[in-house]
Write a structure and sequence with these properties.
Layout: E1 4-8, H1 13-24, E2 28-33, E3 47-50, H2 62-70, E4 75-78, H3 93-121, E5 126-132, H4 143-166, E6 171-177, H5 198-210, E7 216-224, E8 229-234
Parallel strand pairs: 1-2, 1-4, 2-3, 4-5, 5-6, 6-7
Antiparallel strand pairs: 7-8
Helix pairs in contact: 1-5, 3-4
The structure holds NADP nicotinamide-adenine-dinucleotide phosphate.
NADP nicotinamide-adenine-dinucleotide phosphate (NAP) is lined by residues 9-15, 33-35, 51-54, 79-82, 102, 130, 132, 177, 179-180, 182-184.
Length: 243
């Protein structure tokens, strides 16, 4: 098998744009999501596999496992997620559990399995995690979403050392993106027409990933101008204070 890229949460939106960019860079691209079987097979050459982070028994998924067991991906992108904007008092236990499984417990468990395969194969890999500017911004009625993005960032910063220790030559990137023009906010009254273009963001993420030499790189892509202009800020950003 040629070198390949696994995009967890790559059926739509930013993840799909990252998978398309991987193809342009001559990688084989494996993109996952719950709806993989509803998208025309091997759309544009991307290999789509079913994965549901909220599965209590198998958050990696059998199809993704087959790829990883045969060969460790050169790049693992952790992208997928869902949005929730609600007063906490209005959130049901099921919604909170689904958000937590989608943004944290599911992908962390899936990554644990990928990492075990990599350790067994003694094969380093580059982990690229799509975080959010919401991990350090106070947003009203988004306590569950924002705090899970912060938890994700905390996991990645801690795990990056373990990754390099166990598989020297591995790298980690955390990209805290601002708001983009994807289907992420579908069903809300948020107007995305003026927001950043996911294809352009995917291209820039790849450019930076390809030239990364350090073990860990974290940066943010904030919304400049009217929201459409990417503004790059390197390093870990301070968290807003609530008042
Ligand atoms: N859009 C923004 O403004 C924005 C800003 C900052 C950060 N982000 C972050 O960027 C990431 C991607 O968002 P996007 O804008 O590309 O959203 P999107 O267009 O809605 O795409 C979300 C992706 O996540 C996958 N996904 C959702 N639930 C999943 C699950 N349970 N298991 C596996 N995959 C799942 C979806 O696939 P299926 O539906 O096939 O499962 C889809 O491929 C998210 O983590 C989000 O928090 C987005």
């Amino acid at each position: 098998m040629t070198d390949y890229v696994l995009v967890m949460g790559g059926t739509r939106g930013l993840g799909h744009a990252i998978a398309e960019e991987a193809l342009d860079r001559k990688f084989m691209a494996v993109a996952s999501g719950r709806t993989a079987d509803k998208i025309p097979a091997h759309q544009k050459g991307i290999c789509l596999v079913t994965q549901d982070f909220t599965s209590a028994v198998d958050p990696l998924g059998e199809e993704a496992r087959l790829f990883v067991a045969e060969q460790i991906p050169q790049y693992v992108f952790w992208v997928g997620g869902i949005f929730l904007k609600k007063r906490l008092a209005d959130c049901t236990p099921q919604e909170i559990a689904r958000m937590t499984a989608t943004h944290y417990t599911g992908p962390v468990a899936a990554l644990a399995e990928i990492h075990r395969f990599a350790v067994r194969a003694a094969k380093p890999y580059h982990l690229v995690v799509i975080g959010s500017t919401s991990s350090y911004t106070i947003r009203e009625n988004e306590s569950v979403y924002c705090s899970l993005k912060l938890a994700k960032a905390g996991f990645v910063r801690n795990f990056s050392r373990e990754l390099v220790r166990e598989l020297p030559g591995s790298k980690t990137t955390l990209v805290n993106t601002g708001a983009m023009k994807t289907g992420f906010f579908a069903g809300t009254d948020i107007d995305t027409s003026h927001l950043m273009d996911p294809a352009g963001i995917a291209c820039t993420i790849w450019e930076r990933v390809a030239r990364q030499t350090v073990s860990y790189h974290e940066y943010s892509i904030e919304n400049g101008g009217n929201g459409s202009v990417p503004v790059f800020v390197d390093g870990i950003q301070p968290h807003d204070a609530p008042f």
